[in-house]
Amino acid sequence: MSDQQQQDQGLLARIARTEGAQNEIIETLQAITAVIGQGEVQARLGAIKRDKMKQIVDEAVKQGQLTTADEVEENSFIVGHQKDAQGNVLFPGRFQVFASEVLENVRKLLVGKVSGEDVTLEDGGVVTIDEIYGPPPETKAAEPAPKAPKKTKPPKGSVVKSVTPVRTVSAVPVPGSQN
Fold first, then answer.
1. What CATH number belongs to 37-139?
2. Mapped to the 3 state alphabet, what secondary structure does 38-92 carry?
């Protein structure tokens, strides 16, 4: 057997093991969902995602990359939550995004607002501002807010223009899911 054939067989064996592990995870999740219910699984996943998102912001504050701010500005970093017109919280119940990444018509509504304020959107949905951050004082004029590296299309109804991975700044509302 040639070296190439051995490498191919090794790769196929790793793929088979990975698929087997993936199938086992799926079966386990299906069993958990059957026992505790879809709503409870979504609630717990939402809580885990919110906690991870909060840890990202807390670490950025600790490292001096973000500072608390009194009101939303064009370069602010906003933490909040969004409800659709029917009052359903968009999953996972928290978004965190640079103001520059928010749709322009919504950004205009947010600028000048303070933590705790609700902003009613054109479609009847509501964005609540929970926390506001800005860049450190020494970089406020010198550097624009950093851009996240990888973007995907946000779900329908989201106020953000793009969604970034949870490892960076995340805004991941999913319509139809509750807190």
1. 3.10.50
2. HHHHHHHHHHHHHHHHHHHHHHHHHCCCCEECCECCCCCEEEEEEECCCCCECEC
